[in-house]
Specification:
This protein is α+β, with helices and mostly antiparallel strands and 352 residues long. The chain is built from 9 helices and 12 strands. Strands 3-2-1-5-8 form a 5-stranded mixed beta sheet. The protein has a 5-stranded mixed beta sheet with strand order 4-10-9-6-7. The relative contact order is 0.10.
Length: 352
């Protein structure tokens, strides 16, 4: 028989481990209820699909919580009720060889729980995936690349990168955005937690999803499928406008690139190097398809799919040596002089 002091210290150690685990869980979960721009915030949905997913998740969590409380309560009761007591060495506990009622209960109840969860989950999935585009909805194609997002609006004649712009929906103006998801290389996964669930982008296959944000703002997402060494920096932004602001954004994006005479030297640098082989600028002879469309580069909030803010210094550092900012990216160091870099940056900053 172990001494009482050993049992005491063992109990304290167990309780300390439990408290530490509970603290870790709180630290992990708490940010999900905090800032609206948190990448992993799934508990503050602001789009219809995300709201339906949240409600289903809460049902699953509630059922699991009830099971946990029952099992944990029975375990605590057994530990307390049948704990070791002085004098137990001389007796043998009652031998129980089974109970048909208990065995039937713990077989039937889990089957019923699983059946309920299957029905609820299937209904939610069907309701989301079977939704058809309505009049006034926006269609966009999202193509995953290593490691950036190409975004096309075929009906609007717009091509951009790393930022999906949509209109907010409300009771009087429901305007969902339907997305076609494709991959240009490996498997990726489109995930903006506050707006919808994860949907994979598979090579040679087209998947579909839709979102209907209800509040204007910028919502952060990311690739949720490991796709290479810069997977963690394949970030995504969904910019939700009011209907009027979205129409203005569309008109601006449909315009060709502005020709600014003050940046003519930088334009020459752009077309004298292999930039034109990968990038496109509408209204010019640059028709590249391997890199992001640069027609309205400076209207975007970030560079390199969220790796840096779109500022003068970040743009210059990106052009000087892309590998320092995003190791392994397919944009090479063009080995330009400082003067050429400054001229090229001045030209790119006119693309608004």
């Amino acid at each position: 028989m172990r001494p009482r002091s050993y049992r005491y210290h063992s109990t304290v150690r167990t309780l300390s481990l439990f408290a530490s685990a509970l603290t870790c869980i709180i630290v992990i979960i708490q940010p999900a209820f905090g800032k609206v721009d948190s990448v992993t915030n799934i508990f503050r949905p602001l789009s219809q699909p995300a709201q339906e997913i949240k409600e289903t998740s809460f049902l699953v969590l509630a059922i699991c919580a009830v099971i946990f409380v029952i099992v944990g309560g029975l375990l605590v009761y057994a530990i307390v009720r049948f704990r070791h007591r002085p004098g137990d060495e001389a007796t043998e506990p009652p031998q129980v060889y089974g109970s048909n009622q208990i065995e039937t209960a713990w077989t039937v109840l889990p089957i019923l729980i699983v059946f309920v969860l299957i029905l609820v989950t299937s209904r939610t999935i069907a309701d989301i995936q079977n939704r058809k585009p309505a009049i006034g909805s926006v269609s966009a194609t999202v193509v995953g690349h290593q490691w950036w997002w190409e975004i096309r609006y075929p009906e609007l004649g717009i091509v951009t990168a790393n930022e999906l712009h949509v209109a907010a929906s409300n009771e009087g103006n429901h305007r969902p955005t339907f997305l076609k998801l494709q991959s240009a290389d490996v498997a990726h996964s489109f995930w903006v937690p506050q707006l919808g669930g994860k949907t994979d982008l598979i090579p040679n296959r087209e998947n579909l999803m839709w979102i209907a944000p209800t509040e204007p703002g910028t919502y952060l997402g990311n690739c949720a499928e490991y796709c290479g060494m810069q997977h963690a920096r394949m970030l995504l932004r969904v910019v939700v406008h009011t209907p009027q602001e979205f129409e203005q954004w569309v008109r601006e994006q449909q315009q060709p690139a502005v020709e600014d005479a003050s940046a003519s030297e930088g334009r020459k640098v752009f077309f004298a190097n292999s930039c034109v082989s990968c990038h496109a600028i509408r209204g010019t002879s640059a028709k590249g398809v391997f890199g992001p469309d640069l027609t309205h580069l400076m209207s975007r909030q970030t560079l390199a799919s969220g790796a840096a803010l779109n500022s003068h210094d970040s743009l210059r550092a990106w052009i000087r040596d892309p590998q320092k900012l995003k190791i392994g990216c397919l944009m090479p160091n063009m080995q330009m002089s400082d003067k050429e870099v400054d001229q090229l940056v001045a030209y790119l900053e006119t693309l608004r």
